Amino acid sequence: MTDSVDRHRPSNRRRLLAGASSVAVAAALLTAAPPGATAASSTSSGPTARGTGGAVSSVDVNASKIGRDVLARGGNAADAAVAMASALGVAEPYSAGIGGGGYFVYYDAKRKKVSTIDGRETAPAGISRNAFIDPATGKPYPFTPQLVSSGAAVGVPGTVATWDAALKRFGTRSLKQSLAPSIRLARKGFVVDKTFRNQTLDNAERFAAFPDTAKLFLPGGDAPKVGKRFRNPELARTLTSIANRGPNAFYRGVLAKDIAKVVQSPRKDPASTLPAPAGTLTAKDMARYRVRNQKPTHIDYRGHEVYGMAPSSSGGTSVAEALNILETYRLGSGKRLGRSLHLYLEASARAFADRGKYVGDPKFVKVPTKTLLSQRFANSRRCTVDDSKASTRPVPAGALRGRGCGTVAQQEKPDTENVSTTHLSVVDKWGNAAAYTLTIEQTGGSAMTVPRRGFLLNNELTDFTAAYDPADPNRIAPGKRPRSSMAPTIVLKNGKVKYVVGSPGGATIITTVLQILVNRIDLGMSLPQAVAAPRASQRNAAATPAEPAFIRKYEGLLAPYGQALTPSGDQFTSAAEIGAAATIEVGRGGQLIAAAEPKRRGGGTGMVVRPRR
Ligand code: GLU
After folding, report:
1. Are residues 397 and 540 in the same domain?
2. What was the pLDDT predicted at 10?
C-alpha cells in the first residue's frame, strides 16, 4: 500500500510550482505557509469545551457555533448535525458539501436505538469497468492530479438526500430551517484562515484547469488572502432553492441537468494539460439516487457498546475487528505502554488485510459483515499476532471458516484514498447523538465546480480499485458504492451515550478512530488528551506512517518489538498530520466534554450549550 498521507500533500505543492498556469498563483505560493501548517482560529473559541445542555464538535468554528445555536434553541442532535454539515459545506468547501456524500450514525435516546444512513455516492448506470483506464496507454490514469480531476471520478452525490432522510427520520426541524444559517454564512462569508488558503494553493493547478472553479476559488488568479472574507452567493442561492423546494431541487430538474452536463463534458481551460476524462453521470442517475438505511455495526469492547457504519464503508467493521483483537489483551499505560502500542499496530494491520479482502458494497458482493464483527474471527486473527515481535507486513487476510489461525492469500491493492473529508459530532440535552462524516473525497474533490452553483463535485469513485479485478470486492460496477474508510462511531455505556468519535483522513480515519478509543479506554488518557496524542497509522503496509511526535515519543518503546525496524526492514515514515478528529464524551452526571483538535488542520472547535464555570 502506498501512503496517501505522505504521498499527496508535498507532491501537490511541487507539481503546482512546476505547472501553475498563473503567475499570481505561483507568486502567492512563495508566501504561503508550509504544508500542514496550522492556523490560529479566527475567533477565541477553543478546541475543548465542558458543560451541559448539549455539545458539538467540528473542525470549523462557524459550523460549531451554528450547531450549538440549534441545540440552544431546542433543536435535537439530528437538527444540529444537518445545520452543521451544511455550514461545513460552506466553510470547508474543499472537504465536503452538497457535491459529495457521507455516513450518518444516530442514537435515538427515546427508542434506545442506533441507526445509520448510508449517503455514499453511487457509480452512474453508464460506467464501464474501464472508466479509469486511459485509452491512449491502456493503463489506469495516474491517480493525482489526472484521475481525481475528472468527470469519470464523479459519483452521484448523496449528501442532500442524507440531510433530508436524517431530518425526516430523527429531526424536529424542516430542511428550510436547518439550511437557513448556512445560507446566511454563504452570503455573508467567513474569514479566510491559513488552512483554507493553503488548501486552495495546494489545489491551484487543478482549480486553474477548470474556469468555473478558478473564478470561484482563485479570484484574480490567487487564493483568497488570510483575514479576507470569502463569500459564495451562488452557493447561497443553490442552498436556498434546496431549502425551499426540498431534495427534488437537487436531484431533479435544472440543477441535476447542470451536474450531468459538467460531468459529461468538463469545461476545461484549453491551456491545461490535465486530461479531465468525461464521466457518464446523467440526470436520470441523479433522480434514481437513494440513501440506504441499514443496521449499524456493533461490538462489545470492555463493557462498551461500539456502533459504527456497516459496508459500503469499511470503517465500522475495521475498527470493530481491531478492537475485538485488542480486547483479548491487557492494555495499559506505564510499563504496558510499549506492548500496547505494538498490539495496536498489529491489530490494525490485520483489520486492513481483511477489509481489503472482503469489504465492498454488499448490494454487489457478498460481504461477511457478521463474521468480521465476531469475536471468534478476531480470536483467529489474534492467533497470528506475536505479542513480542512485529509481523512481516503485509500480513495475509484471515480465513472466514475453520479453526485456528487460518489465513488466505490476498493481493494488496494500492491505497488510493485521500486526506480530505470532515467530521462532526453532536450530543443533545435528551441524550441523542449524531456522528456524521461527510466528504467530497480529495481535498478540492474533482476540482470541477458546477457553473454558477457555487459548489465542487466529488471524485469519490476513485475509492474504487482503479484497475478492474474480478476478485476484488471493490471493483467498479454501475450503481455501486465505492468502499469507504469513514468511521463515524457512537459508543454507549450502560445504555447511554458515552463517546461520539470520527475523523477525516481517508484510510487513516480507521486508525485515528481506533487510536482515540484505545487512548481513552485503555491508556488512561482524558478525551482531549486522546485526541491530541500523536498518531500512527499501520494499514498493513511494511512501513507505518506516523506523526513526527509519535516517532519521537514512542520509537524507543516500540524498538524492542521490531516496530521501529520490522522484519522486512521497514520503519516509521513521517506523516505531517494524521486525521482531524471531532469528538464528545458524556461524563458523570451528564457533564459533557466536546473535544476537537487543538492543532491539526488549523484546530477545531468544541462547544457546549451551558459552559461550566
Ligand atoms: N473517500 C474517502 C473515504 O470514503 C474519504 C476521503 C478522505 O477522508 O480523505 O474513505
Report:
1. yes
2. 27
* Minimum-distance ligand 1 atom for the alpha carbon of 443: 9
Quote the CA–CA distance of 449 and 119 in Å, as a whole number: 21
CA of 494 to the centre of ligand 1 (A): 32
Asked if residue 19 has pLDDT above 90, the reply is no
pLDDT digits (tens, 9 = 90+) for 89-135: 999 999 999 999 999 999 999 999 999 999 999 999 999 999 999 99
What is the reported pLDDT for 18?
28
Is the confidence at residue 409, as pLDDT, over 90?
no
Same domain, 574 and 437: no
Residue 15 has pLDDT above 70, yes or no: no
Range of the domain at 131: 12-292+418-463
Dig out the grid coordinates for 603 from the structure.
Answer: 484546530
Beta carbon of 314 within 6 Å of any ligand 1 atom: no
Q: What are the φ/ψ torsions at residue 607 (nearest 5 degrees)?
A: -140, 150
Task: Tell me: do 317 and 396 sit in the same domain.
Answer: yes
Kind of pairing between the strands at 544-546 and 572-574: parallel
Residues 27 and 139 in one domain: yes
* pTM given for the model: 0.92
- Does the beta carbon of 118 sit less than 6 angstroms from any atom of ligand 1? no
* Averaged confidence pLDDT in the chain: 91
Does 479 fall in a domain? Answer: no
Separation of CA 502 and ligand 1 centre (Å): 12
How many domains does the chain contain in total? 2
Active-site annotation holds for 443 = no
Cβ–Cβ under 8 Å, residues 422 and 580: yes
Q: Are 445 and 457 in contact (CB under 8 A)?
A: yes
102 lines ligand 1 (CB under 6 A): no
pLDDT at 412: 73
Give the distance (Å) from ligand 1 centre to CA of residue 440.
8
Q: Which three cell numbers stand for residue 73?
A: 434553541
